[in-house]
Predict the structure.
Amino acid sequence: MSGEPLLEVRGLAKHFDPGAGLFGRGGEPVRAVDGVDLRVATGETLGLVGESGSGKSTLCRAILRLVEPTAGSVRFEGQELTELSQRRLRPLRRHVQMIFQNPSASLNPRKRVGDIVGAPLKLHGLASGAELHRRVGELLGRVGLSPEHLGRYPHEFSGGQRQRIGIARALATEPKLILADEPVSALDVSIRAQIVNLLQDIQDEMGIAYLFVAHDIGIVRHVSDRIAVMHRGRIVEQGQTDQVCEQPRDPYTQELLAAVPVPDPREARARRSTGGVGG
Amino acid sequence: MSGAPLLEVRELAVSFNTEEGSVRAVDRLDLDVAPGEVLAVVGESGSGKSVTALTLMGLSRGPNTRISGSVRFDGIDLIAARDEELRRIRGERIAMVFQDPMTSLDPVYRVGDQIVEQIRAHRETSREEARSRAIELLDAVGIPDAASRADAYPHQFSGGMRQRVMIAMALSLDPSLLIADEPTTALDVTVQAQIVALLRELNRARGLSVVLITHDIGLVAEVADRVAVMYAGRVVEQGTLDEVFYDPQHPYTWGLLGSLTRIDRPRPERLPQIPGAPPSLLSPPQGCHFRPRCAHEFERCAQVPDLEARLAEAPGHLDRCWLDPVEKRERRPIEVDGS
Amino acid sequence: MRGALARFAARRLASMVLVLLAVSLLVFAIFNVLPGGDPAVRMAGKIPTETQVEAIREEWGFDEPVYVQYVTTMEKLFSGDLVSYFTQLNVTEEILKGAPRTFALAIGAAIIWMVFAIALGLYSAMRVGTLSDRLLTVLALIGISMPVFWLGILLSHYLGYEAGIFPTGEYVEFLDSPTQWFWHLVLPWFTLAVLFIGIYSRVLRSNILETMDEDYVRAARAKGLPERQVLLKHVLRNSLIPIVTLWGLDFGAVIGGAAILTELVFSLQGVGQYTAEAIEQLDVPAVMAVTMYGAFFIVIFNALVDIAYAALDPRIRLEGRRQA
């Protein structure tokens, strides 16, 4: 791991102002992200675990400036992103891509798969014509789909396949960092492992770093080198995965870990008889 | 847990006529629920688990639906029952809790009123009596300040609290069977643990039978007595909790158990995965539905395997796989010691 | 919770005043300021004499600065003192005479159209896909497509003139003869209602079909509620909410004089008819007055609709504030 982290976030905050409309009379701003520090090194996976309302999705969007941060700094390869104009930001976007939770909602149903995957290449002027065609086919193959599929529409695919299309799109510009926001939560259990393994294979091959965001601590633990636990807009604990999971220091982390169902009947019975969780 | 089953499902088949053809969502299902037990029905999308749940309540009836088979509940066949008979059973003797508590409660009525409505639909009770019962129930499921919360609207509750409201409502007439269709899927893991604990408590304390429908096999270890695993419209394995977890017989069950992440064990290099995807029910594979994804398939699999007990020592442990038990134990890729 | 609704209502009514103010500015600008030429000449009528024009200019202050003109115009509009230079009649009085007739038309038609729309919409939805449903759909489309004046004239001619069942027009004061008052309004009510029945029954039908698929309807059945209760208490209640708001807006418009054609065909001499005549003659004071009259009702019903919506759908008035 080299000196400078790939992504460094400091004091990032995003506050929403309620009551701007006709109904509320104002009041407390919603602190969706309330001063977050984190960093991701080149080629590593930082897992971000949080429940609904923790602010993890807003955090992803704020990092990419899909929503404008209220405060804080986001440095990518040493460059401060928050101060750039949208125009200056655009070329940097090829290095940081995002995978979304709902594979049905994040693919334009009216566009063909080939166009969806090829769009980032076109946008950044990285390929056109026959070369574009070839690269799109390659990308589809990389994610386990047939290159012939590029003429089809998203609805012709299953949920797992659509997520693969989303991954292919994210890979198109050969990014250095991918923000994966709940990439497997909407998928069937038997498909999740496929996608998780695919993401790991891609990382091994291409050295992409991930910010892997999910509410399922089991999956996050599996993929991450380091883990950050988010609660109500703040990171309450951060560190090496094994350390955080085996010796959690923050009470919320402990609560989260204790709540994970143990898929082992004898274990579960034992825990209950010693006055375990959820009793 | 002896004696007559509370619910007896035999040869249940449900097909839907869609524009693209006939979809066989449930294919000759047999299931039993004993009084006081928790039966978990585990399956993914397309497994037929939710359709089964709805069919038990008679909620899948419609012009495009064909239902056959029998569902015996306390001497009555729910499939053959007339609408009025079914209506009386629903909510009073069999109750159901749905997946998304936000959309399962009518947004324009107060929560207490929705419980009162259910009570008064079945019993001659005064409004005051029904209301005090509603408050009692909300309290019993752990909603703080129940008396004033009964006047709140659904959107004023958090997800976990809304689910508790649904459970309270389901219990209002003291049913003997509760069907819970993915009750925790839309909830956070900390809340999920509480709801599961609540269900377990209700089962133990009141002898309430529960059919818990879920895609999360990891969840059932906390609460189930018996487990039925469904795939593409059929039960592929069925047995006690320990039997299914510690001696799984069907390759699909191996896949499901294998893909679980266990935070109490060291991380594997790679998550074991099941290749492919659940089949389209418009044109399911011939023979065993799992065959296209199965690493152990052979010629006999072209014939639909019977759901049978193949282990002499476990007559209640059924599976739908032609491999003989010795083969299965050898080929099983996961550790099942659990010790 | 009551407080939230009251505060919302207060805010809505306050913004109403602002809208009316804006409308009055627009009315003033459109009729007196924007068009080129001499407003006094415009007002004076077809064959104005020099003295008339001079008198008008004096009275309305057209030599004064614009804002003074505005104030004068508003004063005249609201003082009840406005006289039309064509008819020599007091505009406000004419409007007040016409208003009860327009009200009678509007209220009667509105009740009829709501009752029928709900009945037909519900019936259609319950029997979706059957012959009756398709038949009703066709009828609704016919109703929507029939021009009001065409229908009105047809009915008036065949049922009125030829068959003699109904009177062909004119309005009878309620106090003079309640039965005649009623009888004279039947055809106008029906004519006006047909269009709305067509639209509303379709909208309701589609709302109902959508609501039937909602999770809470399925959950209500799972509770063992009788089907009728599920339909009326849960499905209909939720499906009607958008209809109520539509109704408020349409009703506001009709009361504000939008049923011009119906009033004309049946010679009801209501505000709508008055509006038509004023426009025809370019009778500026009258047109300004009816515009303000119409705007007032539309705006107030708009506000009432918003408030009603908040009252019917608790999610709207009680935003935020999650507890427990």
